[in-house]
Amino acid sequence: MEKENNYIEYTFKVVPIDPASDILIAELGEVLFESFLETEDGVLAYIRKEDWSAGILNDLSILENDNFKITYDFKEIEQENWNATWEQNFNPIQVDERCVVRAPFHEKPVVEYDIVIEPKMSFGTGHHETTHMMLQHILNTDFKGKRVLDMGSGTGVLAILAAKREARTVDAIDIDNWCYLNALENVERNDCNHINVYEGDVNLLKEKQYDLIIANINRNILLGDIPEYSKCLEVGGTLFLSGFYSEDLSTITSKCEEHNLKFVSNLNRNNWIAAVYRKC
């Protein structure tokens, strides 16, 4: 008798890896793939066998895009081997020798900030350049006593570090139900009781006020939401934006300037940007 909850593992090799890997992950998520791990040359993606079919990749437009070369193979993984497979491929990351983001099965490190994340199919483990840079920004900013918003919170990793940095309150918002549920689990796992997790979008920001706003999403959503961020950010407050490329920085900055948000600085990691703005 076949075991329940077996997984199908796809190994994708992607050229060029940016931005193709992000697009690929987004499209795979729409056809019920649950978990993703970015590798040096592509992506590992997992789907429950009960949700899989032989033609599941037929409607992925990125596979037909001549700008990218994507090859893949796949195999079945039995449920009893799933944790071992996850452990083998998900390595902890260290940020500025002060913060480690790890899974529950990793050994507890001796660092200032130890964050335990079970990512499932949510985004934000610290492996991606944008999450890594946002963690750096949080480490280098005074969060003590501040009211914080983490917009597009994914796993909740940025909200968790903000809370550990002594933010007074943190609201973590994501439009995706899976991210919402996953963030709830990770917040509890890290004993961050003053993080409020919500499922929704910028409509939840009405009548809210924050001292710091973190938004690691993507270029188009940021451009649409920047006016709302400005409305609920206190004068003198700080806005951290990421999820876009260096060539988009001028466009993002122009939109911010339209709404009294002055560019302060940015980090750049493999052409990804994490920028800082201040409300004036």
From TrEMBL:
Principal place of residence: cytoplasm
Ranges that cross the membrane: none
Gene3D superfamilies: Vaccinia Virus protein VP39 (3.40.50.150)
Name of this protein: Ribosomal protein L11 methyltransferase
InterPro entries: Ribosomal_L11_MeTrfase_PrmA, Ribosomal_PrmA_MeTrfase, SAM-dependent_MTases_sf
GO molecular function: protein methyltransferase activity
Keyword field: Cytoplasm, Methyltransferase, Ribonucleoprotein, Ribosomal protein, S-adenosyl-L-methionine, Transferase
Any single GO CC term annotated in Swiss-Prot or TrEMBL for this entry: ribosome
Localization per Swiss-Prot or TrEMBL: Cytoplasm
Membership in a protein family: Belongs to the methyltransferase superfamily. PrmA family.
Primary role: Methylates ribosomal protein L11.
Transferase recorded as keyword: yes
EC numbers on record: 2.1.1.-
NCBIfam families: PRK00517.2-2 (NF001785)
Recorded catalytic activity of this chain's protein: L-lysyl-[protein] + 3 S-adenosyl-L-methionine = N(6),N(6),N(6)-trimethyl-L-lysyl-[protein] + 3 S-adenosyl-L-homocysteine + 3 H(+)
GO BP: methylation
Ribonucleoprotein listed as a keyword: yes
Binding-site list for S-adenosyl-L-methionine: 131, 152, 174, 216
